[in-house]
Amino acid sequence: MLRADGVTVSYDRHRVLDRVSVDVPPGVVTGLAGPSGCGKSSLARVLALLLRPAAGRVSVDGTDVRRWRHRAAPALRTRVALIFQQPRLAVDPRFTLLDVITEPLRVARQPLDRAERLAEEMGLTPDLLVRRPHEVSDGQLQRACVARALALRPRYVICDEMTTMLDASTQAHLVARLEDYRRESGAGVLAISHDTELLDRWCGTDSSIRHLERLWTRT
Ligand SMILES: Nc1ncnc2c1ncn2[C@@H]1O[C@H](COP(=O)(O)OP(=O)(O)OP(=O)(O)O)[C@@H](O)[C@H]1O
């Protein structure tokens, strides 16, 4: 279980999350809905060990997180992957798409051959893999970011408005690939969106949609 327990986040003196708790169990999709600005991305960054909360606890499979960002224990950090809303802000513009996908494998000193299979599954052809971000569409770049997120076989995948700026067919393709990964690996997915219709479609019957606003008034 990936768990945030009573998490508070403030920027300067502005409190955006006030003792929020959320559980992301393995194996299912958990939906997280809420209007723009309510703190969904902040919670995503906390759960991905990228933002240290002012208060509260985060644990990954029972282990409390004590260090954050680059100081976080690699064994915990690599267990949670985050897919961002805007892929252009999430990649190094000098990288080719293949570099984007292999980056976590290189950092973890793991064999790079998995990258080609991931690229193929994401519908990225070899001619696209040698291009840089400015030479591909948003949808193609987001496919590379999803492949990168899955490279180290994370136990939890957080999708923060992953498909908001993409057309319906790219959106359906990315969701289908993540569903393949979830079923095959038993990973837990946290799907974050203001689009509750998308969450309804994605989460189906074996999952729950939580409304962040409701969560924080309850805690
Ligand atoms: N690094 C930051 N510094 C200062 N304020 C921030 C920072 N990041 C977010 N905020 C503010 O915190 C609040 C919550 O932002 P956050 O991005 O977490 O919300 P969100 O629900 O994901 O919004 P959206 O759906 O529009 O992406 C907003 O008022 C935002 O302006």
From TrEMBL:
This is ATP-binding cassette domain-containing protein. Residues 2-212 form the ABC transporter domain. Keywords: ATP-binding, Nucleotide-binding, Transport. PROSITE patterns: ABC_TRANSPORTER_2. PANTHER family: D,D-DIPEPTIDE TRANSPORT ATP-BINDING PROTEIN DDPF-RELATED, TRANSPORT ATP-BINDING PROTEIN. Belongs to the ABC transporter superfamily. The lineage of its organism: Bacteria, Bacillati, Actinomycetota, Actinomycetes, Streptosporangiales. One of its GO terms (molecular function) is ATP binding. The keyword Ribonucleoprotein does not apply. The keyword Acyltransferase does not apply. It comes from Microtetraspora glauca. Gene3D superfamilies: P-loop containing nucleotide triphosphate hydrolases.
